[in-house]
Amino acid sequence: MRIRKRSFSFVFDFFSLIFFERSLRRPFFFCLLGMSLAMSIVLATISLMSGFDKSLKKSLRSVQGDFYFYHHRQAPFSLDSFYYFLGQEKQEPENVAFSAFYQTQGFLLPSSQQYGKKSTGVLIHFVDEFSMKEVTKREEFSLLESDKAVLLGSELAKDLGIKKGEELVLLFSLTKEDSNSSFLFFRGIFQGVVNHNLFEKDSRFVYAKRSSLQHLTGRDDLINRVSFNSFRQNDESGVEMSSQLPIGYKVEPYWSDFSTLLEAVKVEKVTLLLILQLIVLIAGMGLTAFLFFFYEEKKEMFFLLLSLGMSKRRLCLSLLVFLNVAHLFAVLISCGMLKIFNEFFFLTNLFSKGKAIYNLVELVPSLELTDYLQVFLLGYLLVILLALWFFYFLFKKPVMALMRSREV
Question: Which residue of 69, 91, 114, 269 shows the fewest CB atoms closer than 10 Å?
Fold first, then answer.
């Protein structure tokens, strides 16, 4: 206990000496600033990668359930197959929120009010407004009141310059599995927009009532997808649910269409973390260089401490505590720098390039506790390893060598 108290008192003396002596204050300040800047750069990079992952999943989750159930040929099917998958026999489940809909590709044709505009390829969803609202918790689907009501993605509506109440014309066909399929025309009325916060969906997605498709085809059970919320804990990818699927059917999580991109981002995040640790290593070398500079400038003090009976072990312990406190200061400063960087990026709109690259409307930097620990602990480990190098240099020299080298 005495050794620890004396070690902390020596640490206070070291900081006091550095603070009041100008020749030591400036080098120590810039070494600490370099260490903080290096860690804040690594954190800023990782926060952007993590922010993309979360922003993309948030955007994808906002307009559908946790999973969707479909036939591998995209063929229409009966809800009985979905009930069988849930373990129910031709009975609607009570504890699972789901919404059945029909998805198909088609064209949005220019109406009389949009003369001169080209047709646009779109992905049409014929949904049940009440169940879809329950699954997604989105109030926009309540705008699908009449059979002619149509909702557009926000970017698509912006490009068309369409106003509420204007007429829309949709041209589409049923899936290839339906041998009697032919092109169908649907004239609807634009009622509002759905903001997915994802350009790829906001520029292509169209929503209409499933009852309007039933009127066009005369079929009441025409669906080819079911969006539902998870009824199993700790099964984000749907692996456990896949074991009870009927033959020919699949279950995919809401982010499955972007799984390759998300996996690439994870690999890129780890790679960048390892590469950018070189910056922290260089900054740690600067802090170690300050220790050598401090040693050369204050050899008399080290000689006096060792001559008065202080062991090299206790001296190294005091210097180690000093480095720990210095690293803690660097961590706190780096967190402040990270806040400044994020505010600067938002004010200068530098994140707009990242949004365009990743097709995101919203890109918010995000960091978890594990990200902080990875950066700070790796930085701390590098500082300790470099400090051990300095302690080895200090231990191998006898006490009298300190003064002899100083006299020469």
Answer: 91
The pLDDT mean for the chain works out to 77
For the chain, what is the domain count? 2
Domain that holds residue 113: 67-253
**What does the pLDDT read at residue 362?**
63
Strands 205-209 and 120-127: parallel
Single out the residue in 196, 230, 253 at which a domain terminates.
Answer: 253
Is there a single domain that holds both residue 281 and residue 327? Answer: yes
* One domain, residues 302 and 362: yes
Q: Which residues lie across from 253 on neighbouring strands?
A: 67
What is the Cα–Cα distance from 52 to 48, expressed in whole angstroms?
6
Q: Phi and psi of 115, rounded to 5°?
A: -60, 135
Q: What are the tokens at 110?
A: 């220019």
255-279 burial: b if 16+ Cβ within 10 Å, else e: bbebeeeeeebeeebeeebeebbeb
Q: Residue 71, class by beta-carbon neighbours within 10 Å (0-12 exposed, 13-18 middle, 19+ buried)? A: middle
In this model, does residue 40 exceed pLDDT 70?
A: yes
pTM here is 0.68
